Amino acid sequence: FIFVPRLNMENYENQICKLMKFAKGYENEYKDVLKHEYNNKQKIKELNYKLLDHNITQMHEILKEKESKRFELAHNLTKETENLLQEKKKYTENALEEFKEGIEDWLKERKHAAQKELFLAIHELSLSIGKAVIQPGGVLNFVDTVKKISKSVQD
């Protein structure tokens, strides 16, 4: 991820004005040294160092500013991601709670349906037994049927 500054004329004009201000000041100072004719090599060296130092300082400030902006953007992106993850966590927790409640309701419904089916099966069985007993010779057939079932279960 590389930060690219916005391209607008105002930024360039400000940078050019700063550079021109420094250049004029440097030029005037250099002319003063030459005008007064004290070709002080020490002073000329100081001015050259000042020029180099200014370039390095200016570059350092620009890099520091860019680094600060990149850090700020990364920090904002991290915050947004954190907020998004928190929202998703809350959504997931709510969905889990609803799912648990849904399972409990479903189990209750299934249990009730099973009880109802069991009741109906017992009722039908009792009616069938009653019909078998009421028919002539039904008791003997019923007893024979029970014997056959018990033998098949034992085998």
TrEMBL record:
<keyword id="KW-0175">Coiled coil</keyword>
<protein>
    <submittedName>
        <fullName>18911_t:CDS:1</fullName>
    </submittedName>
</protein>
<feature type="coiled-coil region">
    <location>
        <begin position="74"/>
        <end position="116"/>
    </location>
</feature>
